[in-house]
């Protein structure tokens, strides 16, 4: 009986062992090979001088603008320039009918000749009376009258000379010339127009365009914060002689020619609490036109020990908070919120949230998330000091 039971149980035990072995094989087959760790490229942060620039908005304006006006009354005979062309100082722009002014000039010459003749006559009479009064041939009163008549005639000559000079000026004003060199706009009057009647009629406008100025505004809060940081030693002056300026055009590209900051205004606009800063830019091809809206980037200071990251390393959450992915010594990824400063070229200045020596993911962000283990490819850090120039 015992032999029968032992023989019966042995196959059952073997079947149970076989079932357990097959289950173990299935579990091993379900786990399969582990996927490889994602590959990312990182940049190790290092402190280096960073140019602190401020991007401000404003408009272009011509350094010199002259309104050409009629200085005498008359009828415009001819326009002598091509609208929209470049003119030199002294170029003839308009001709006003000179006939009335020529007649006035001739009349002034005749009046001067008459005054000089009268002065000649009174001078001779005064000289004769001067001799006769010593001989008691004429009274002292008669001599005084002759002397006074001569002085009046001499004053009349001076007055006639002034009238003649005025007539010459009016005749010259009939030929309207350019007061400055620059580009002239459209004509504001046409041939046959009566100008200068009881007012100085505007005829055209000339603007100097090379170089050109850019006036931008900066809040006094930003300016004071910059000054406090400079005094505290946190920042250094960007330049001893001049502050470099970069003009950002309407398409977002940088104007190829560098400019410089000329001055900061000495008064604050009470309505906006802002101060005006004026920059100057070369404009040899006249691509920049007055009145255009522009942005100007001013390199106002240098942070001796600054941190920056490539712009492609920055991501933002639904609230717009900027974040980066950092890889620690165990090759594990973590997410870090950061505070960003200015944009310098293709990099962001980091004002808070990161420390020197940390490794920031710059490529492969879309394949990893916080908590993942990764393989890293080290990328050398980039210099950003040149972006402030």
Describe the structure.
This protein has 389 residues and is of the alpha+beta class. The protein has 4 domains: 40-51 and 305-388, conserved putative lor/sdh protein from methanococcus maripaludis s2 fold (Beta Barrel); 52-63 and 210-302, Elongation Factor Tu (Ef-tu), domain 3 (Beta Barrel); 70-97 and 174-207, OB fold (Dihydrolipoamide Acetyltransferase, E2P), CATH 2.40.50.100; 98-172, Helix Hairpins, CATH 1.10.287. It has helices spanning 2-31, 99-134, 140-173, 220-231; strands at residues 39-44, 48-61, 65-69, 74-79, 86-87, 92-96, 175-177, 182-184, 194-195, 202-207, 212-219, 236-237, 244-248, 259-264, 274-281, 293-310, 315-316, 322-327, 333-337, 339-344, 347-352, 359-363, 375-379. Strands 1, 17, 18, 19, 22 and 23 form a 6-stranded mixed sheet that branches. A 6-stranded antiparallel β-barrel has the order 2-11-15-14-13-16. Strands 3-10-8-5 form a 4-stranded antiparallel sheet, with no helix packed on it. A hairpin with a 5-residue loop joins strand 18 and strand 19. Helix 2 (99-134) packs antiparallel against helix 3 (140-173). The radius of gyration is 45 Å and the shape is elongated. The N and C termini lie far apart (103 Å). Mean pLDDT is 79; it is low at 1-9 and 385-389.
């Amino acid at each position: 009986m015992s032999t029968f039971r032992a023989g019966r149980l042995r196959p059952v035990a073997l079947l149970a062992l076989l079932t357990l072995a097959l289950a173990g094989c299935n579990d091993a087959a379900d786990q399969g090979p582990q996927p490889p760790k994602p590959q990312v490229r990182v940049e190790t942060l290092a402190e280096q001088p960073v140019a602190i620039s401020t991007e401000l908005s404003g408009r272009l304006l011509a350094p010199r603008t002259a309104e050409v006006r009629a200085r005498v009354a008359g009828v415009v005979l001819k326009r002598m320039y091509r609208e929209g062309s470049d003119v030199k100082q002294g170029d003839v722009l308009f001709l006003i009918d000179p006939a009335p002014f020529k007649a006035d000039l001739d009349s002034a010459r005749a009046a001067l000749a008459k005054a000089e003749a009268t002065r000649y006559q009174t001078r001779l009479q005064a000289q004769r009376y001067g001799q006769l009064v010593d001989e008691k041939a004429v009274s002292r009163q008669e001599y005084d009258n002759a002397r006074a008549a001569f002085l009046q005639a001499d004053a009349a000559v001076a007055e006639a000379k002034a009238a003649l000079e005025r007539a010459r000026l009016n005749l010259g004003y009939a030929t309207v010339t350019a007061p400055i060199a620059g580009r002239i706009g459209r004509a504001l009057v046409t041939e046959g127009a009566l100008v200068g009647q009881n007012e100085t009629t505007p005829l055209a406008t000339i603007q100097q365009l090379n170089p050109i100025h850019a006036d931008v505004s900066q809040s006094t809060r930003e300016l004071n914060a910059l000054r406090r940081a400079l005094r505290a030693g946190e920042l250094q002056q960007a330049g001893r002689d001049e502050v470099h300026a970069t003009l950002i055009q309407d398409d977002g590209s940088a104007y190829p020619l560098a400019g410089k900051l000329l001055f900061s205004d000495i008064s604050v606009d009470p309505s906006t609490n802002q101060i005006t800063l004026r920059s100057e830019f070369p404009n040899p091809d006249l691509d920049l036109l007055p009145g255009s809206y522009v942005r100007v980037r001013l390199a106002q200071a240098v942070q001796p020990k600054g941190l920056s990251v490539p712009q492609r390393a920055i991501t933002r959450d639904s609230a717009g908070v900027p974040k980066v992915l950092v890889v620690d010594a165990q090759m594990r990824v973590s997410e870090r919120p950061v505070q960003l400063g200015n944009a310098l070229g293709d990099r962001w200045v980091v004002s808070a949230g990161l420390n020197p020596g940390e490794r920031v993911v710059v490529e492969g962000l879309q394949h990893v998330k916080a908590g993942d283990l990764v393989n890293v490819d080290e990328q050398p850090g980039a210099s950003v000091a040149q972006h402030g120039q």
